[in-house]
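Escalated from tier 1: zinc ion holo job.
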Amino acid sequence: MLQAEKKQVDQERYRRQILIDGWGVETQEKLQDSKVFILGAGGLGCPVALNLTSAGIGNITICDADSVELSNLNRQFLHVEKNIGVDKTTSAVQFLSSFNSAVNFTTITDKVTVDNVNEMVGDADIILDCVDNFPARYALNQCAIEKQIPLVHAAVWGMEGRVTFLKPPATPCLSCLFPVAPQKEVIPIVGVVACATGSLQAMEAIQYLCGNHQSLQGQMLIMDYSSMRFQTLEISRNPDCPVCEQLR
Ligand SMILES: [Zn+2]
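Tier 2 regenerated the structure:
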């Protein structure tokens, strides 16, 4: 694209964030040129997608194979009652595109597998793991390692949330942290825990896309919402991890 045709940043829309120390129009342009891949339009995916859309990320792909159910509505804030039975991707983008029509949205209504993940992720600048099952997470992890794309992992359970930034070999990979998939169970969750955790996950992605230092590289942020205690734990690579060993 010729420089003259480049879309100008909407300085009025983003006025209040352009004012942030060290941000400016230049940083906003970086966000506008960014591509993100969000796996999951559920409890974490909704606040992640909303925060990235409102911040002005230019290109957002949302992937989810499920449709909206009544039991989703206590936490999945992009979906409304009239969309019960509708694909989550369609439902999410209906809301998001009415919120910020300048963002280019791509939807993928399919399950992620090791066979299709590379094509789905494409040339994204960052991957957001907002999914609740480990086969999909492992496929995403493998793709992130192969393509050397950073992955922001988050998870919620009850009154606890976790977020970390993964980009081996500087950090562990997901399989270093979870060599064996935990048993799949119905996750107890209240909306505010998913929303707060997903918002922190989005913040981590925005920081990376802005070109700022990674606050959670090599660290797991653990939020205990029942006591309002947040802590970060050092995390390190598993020397026997078969998934990221080629990066040693
Ligand atoms: Zn690993």
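The longest strand covers residues 151-157.
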